[in-house]
Each structure stands twice: as C-alpha cells, then as structure tokens.
Amino acid sequence: MEINPSQYEKIAASLPRQRGNVSVSNLQVLNAVLYVAEHGCKWRGLPKRYGNWHTIYTRMSRWSRNGVLDRAFTMLQREQIVRIKIEAVSLDSTSVKVHPDGTGALKKTAHNPLANPEGDGQPKFIWLPQMLERP
Q1: pLDDT in tens, the chain (135 residues)
Q2: Which terminus of the chain has a smaller tally of CB atoms within 10 A, N or C?
Q3: Whole-angstrom distance, CA of residue 105 vs CA of residue 86
C-alpha cells in the first residue's frame, strides 16, 4: 500500500510544507506510515528505502499531535486513493501477555478476586481512531 507522486500531489496541501535541509520527503514518511499500518511491524523494522526509522517516527508523532495525520488520511479517503475502515481496536491487560520475568514476583498480600467478575468493568484502554470510510 504505497501512493505514487501523482496521487501525492492531490493531498499535498494537507501536509506541512518542508523547510530547510530535509533528508526524508513527506511522500516517503506517508508511505512509511502506510507500510507500518499495513504490515504491523515495529518502527525499527522499516525497510531502508523509507529512510531512517527514527526520523520517520518523530515526524509521524509530530503530525499525529498536530492533527496533520488525520487531515492526510481524510484527504486520502476523500480522493479514494486509500480506502480503509477501522471501527475499533481494543487493547487491555487481558489480551497482552506478561513477560516471564514479570510473573514470579512475590506478593505482599493475597489476591482477593471479586465475588462478581463482571464488577471489574470495561477494559482499561480502548483506542477508537477517527478514520472511517466516507461515502
């Protein structure tokens, strides 16, 4: 899932203008973000053709904080360059395994489970991205 330069020109207005001596273009960063989203790899696992993984991660993080990433994905979907639909992703302690070293520590008090297991409530962390397919 990569976009080419002609597709990039359609959404370039939603990305910040590059200034100064920049080693990685906005197109490379956007393609790297799409690669990580598609393959689910770690940032350190990015192929070298995208550039330095730390540079890409830093720029993606800045874009995410400033809302640039949301605008870019909205434009990608509006232009029908990338059609994705993510409704909900949930991650909590019941689905993440503990490292073997973290399971053997001695406890000062005994574990007292609740009489009602449903009393624990909802999962502790839910991430609901705003990228929904638009008609």
Answers
A1: 788 999 999 888 888 888 888 888 999 999 999 898 888 888 899 999 999 999 999 999 999 899 888 888 888 888 888 776 655 566 666 666 666 666 666 656 655 666 665 555 555 555 555 555 655
A2: C
A3: 38
Residue holding tokens 């993984």?
A: 53
pTM of the model: 0.61
DSSP string, 38-101: HH---GGG--GGG--HHHHHHHHHHHHHHTHHHHHHHHHHHTTSS------EE--TTTSPPPGG
Residues, the chain, total?
A: 135
